[in-house]
C-alpha cells in the first residue's frame, strides 16, 4: 500500500492538480491510500473539513479514480499540520499545491509549500498551478 498525504486548501485549482498528480502515480488505484488534510486558520462556525468544498471535491475525484481515502483536519499552521500528519501516518509521499509568488512575497508572507518541503523528512511533490 502506497500512502500519500495531500494538503488541501480552499483553492480548487490546487486541489485538482494535487489529486490529478496522485491519480497519475504509478500503480493500481487499489494499492494507493490518500489522507486529505485541511488546516483551518479561522473556523468560528465549527465546520469540519468534510464540509469544505475543496475537500469534498478532492474526495469525489478520488472516488471516481477508485482510490481509498480519509480526511483529517487541524487548526493552526498548515505546513506543520501536513508534515506532522505525514510523520504520524508514516506516509510515503506528501503532495501540496504550489502557488506563484515572488521571492519578496515568500519572504514577507511565507509559503506553506516551501515550509513543507524544508520541514519534511520524506518525499514532497509540489504541483504547479495555473493562476
UniProtKB/TrEMBL annotation:
CDD domains: USP-like. Gene3D superfamilies: HUPs. Residues 3-126 form the UspA domain. It comes from the Archaea. Pfam families: Usp (PF00582). Belongs to the universal stress protein A family. This is Universal stress protein family protein.
Amino acid at each position: 500500500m502506497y500512502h500519500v498525504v495531500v494538503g488541501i486548501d480552499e483553492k480548487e485549482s490546487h486541489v485538482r492538480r494535487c489529486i490529478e498528480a496522485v491519480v497519475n502515480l504509478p500503480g493500481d488505484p487499489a494499492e494507493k491510500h490518500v489522507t486529505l488534510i485541511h488546516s483551518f486558520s479561522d473556523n468560528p462556525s465549527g465546520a469540519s473539513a468534510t464540509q469544505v468544498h475543496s475537500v469534498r471535491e478532492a474526495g469525489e475525484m478520488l472516488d471516481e479514480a477508485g482510490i481509498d481515502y480519509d480526511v483529517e483536519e487541524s487548526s493552526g499552521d498548515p505546513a506543520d499540520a501536513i508534515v506532522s500528519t505525514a510523520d504520524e501516518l508514516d506516509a510515503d509521499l506528501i503532495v501540496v499545491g504550489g502557488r506563484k509568488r515572488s521571492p519578496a512575497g515568500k519572504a514577507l508572507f511565507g509559503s506553506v509549500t516551501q515550509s513543507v518541503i524544508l520541514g519534511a523528512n520524506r518525499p514532497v511533490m509540489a504541483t504547479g498551478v495555473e493562476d
